[in-house]
Write a structure and sequence with these properties.
This protein has one domain: 6 Propeller (Neuraminidase). 9% of the residues lie in helices and 43% in strands. The protein has two helices and 23 strands. Strands 1, 2, 8, 9, 10, 12, 13, 14, 15 and 16 form a ten-stranded mixed β-sheet that branches. The protein has a five-stranded mixed β-sheet with strand order 4-5-6-7-11, with no helix packed on it. The radius of gyration is 22 Å and the shape is globular.
Length: 322
Amino acid sequence: MIRFILLLICSICCACSSELEDTQRETGKDADEDGAFYVEYRLNDFEIDQSSFQFDSSAVILNDLEEASGIIESRLKPNYFYKHNDSGSDARLYLYAANGNQAGQFKLEGITAIDYEDIAINTEEGKDYIYLGDFGDNKEKRKTVSIYRFQEPKFTVAQEYFRDTVNTIDQIEYQYLDKDFEEAVSYNCEALFVDPISRNIYVITKGKSIAHLYKITYPYSFNKINDAHLCGSFTIPPNQITAADISADGKEILIKTYEHVLYWRRDLSQSVEEILQTSFIRVPYLGEPQGEAICFISNGGYVTVSEQNPSVKTKFNFYKPK
């Protein structure tokens, strides 16, 4: 009789354990003892939501960059956009009007360009700062990488093309730290944003199968190597993460892959880490030959852009809220 009762208890425990595992597999959520989360997003479970945003218009980009890899809208003059090249270029930002015309360029004095992959902007104490991520690393061999921070340059829109220089630039050099490794690890990264609430910097590795969310906690150092700590990991099959952005008020987040755009609406009582563990909605995206750039725009929508492709004219693709 005692043996029967023990077997019955064991059977119940196993069933409960199996049910819990099935639930975790269904939700795709888990966390390690240090609090880093893991989420498996199943895109096939999410239809494209047509109720929040819709395609607005396109503008053919003239004199476009060969490998445009990041975009932000100017905070000083809305409807103007900063873009930058990918690897193999020099340290410059290019300014475009929303109609696709290139208006000018800024030389970034005193810094190098190894592999710029994304760009962000944040308003801090009444000033607008641009963050430029030099963290591309296709071979995953760079021991440290950098994000450059500088105040958005003032410019006057004129009929003639202009050139200017940014002279004061801070370097946020950092390394990726992971509790599973004794030394810093290397990743290829293409996504960056700065939370306007906490001023923490978030970067997302491109991920061949699993992408990682890392955080550089504010205040960061401009004269020593910062540590980027692992917040969590996720899969977004079948694509790699190529860009991200957060709205100026911190209430909306976009993450882009080559084929999809994912959107989160955030309650400001939630941290970035918490919101990215919740369900997203898939928002409209036309598809581009190699779309690696996205940003929110001042009308509440967003814009995407691709690298150049010989068979397709490069365009700004604008989406507006409904």
